[in-house]
TrEMBL record:
InterPro entries: Acyl_CoA_acyltransferase (IPR016181), GNAT_dom (IPR000182). The lineage of its organism: Bacteria, Bacillati, Actinomycetota, Actinomycetes, Micrococcales. It holds the Pfam family Acetyltransf_1. This is GNAT family N-acetyltransferase. Residues 8-161 form the N-acetyltransferase domain.
Length: 161
């Protein structure tokens, strides 16, 4: 794909984005984990359902979801939550996905910046995904040695900044 503009536009999502966000989540999820998590090992993630996004985006107390749009299509999104007292960082990057065809165009950087700025933050990343870990290291995060097992035996590693 040849981009028509240098950067995707990043803006806050509204409830009208629920359908495209669910679709983009499903695509990004399978692009990221499809080869390591067998399809039969777990159900479709909650965030791949339009209803999950409709509820999340219509909650007036909920965090902002940031959506990246290129040529009218959702090509990435991010969302950080405040996990509350007692957590290792005041912010957790809950979601950051850029569709494969859009990667390497700074969309991930822009989505990360909008969701967490330069704040101290925690996130979980697939332990095998050295590319994503390199991206986050580039942005000041480091592995803290904590690992967890998630769906279908996927190992995730925690990174902190
Ligand atoms: C990780 C991810 C968000 C990165 O998004 P992206 O749009 O491809 O990244 P960008 O184009 O913004 O990368 C920009 C910068 O990071 C650097 N970078 C990217 N990957 C890197 C790597 N592996 N090692 C070092 N630096 C890296 C680039 O050199 C670039 O630096 P610059 O801004 O100084 O020029 C994206 O690849 C993705 O969605 N992956 C799958 C899902 C995932 O793993 N999400 C994270 C867990 S929630």
């Amino acid at each position: 794909m040849t981009p028509t503009t240098p950067f995707a536009r990043v803006r806050p999502a509204t409830v009208l984005d629920a359908g495209p966000l669910a679709e983009a989540h499903r695509t990004a999820w399978w692009e990221t984990y499809g080869e390591v998590v067998p399809a039969e090992a777990h159900p479709e993630p909650a965030e791949s359902a339009r209803g999950w996004w409709e509820a999340a985006l219509s909650d007036p107390d909920g965090p902002t979801t940031w959506v990246a749009v290129r040529d009218g299509a959702v090509v990435g999104f991010s969302r950080a939550v405040a996990p509350g007292a007692g957590n290792v960082r005041p912010l957790e990057l809950q979601l950051l996905y850029v569709l494969a065809a859009e990667q390497g165009r700074r969309t991930g950087t822009h989505l990360l910046q909008m969701a967490v700025g330069d704040a101290p933050c925690a996130l979980w990343v697939a332990a095998h995904d050295l590319r994503a870990q390199g991206f986050f290291r580039h942005h000041g995060f480091g592995l803290d040695g904590t690992r967890e097992q998630r769906w279908g035996g996927l190992t995730v590693a925690r990174m902190l900044r």
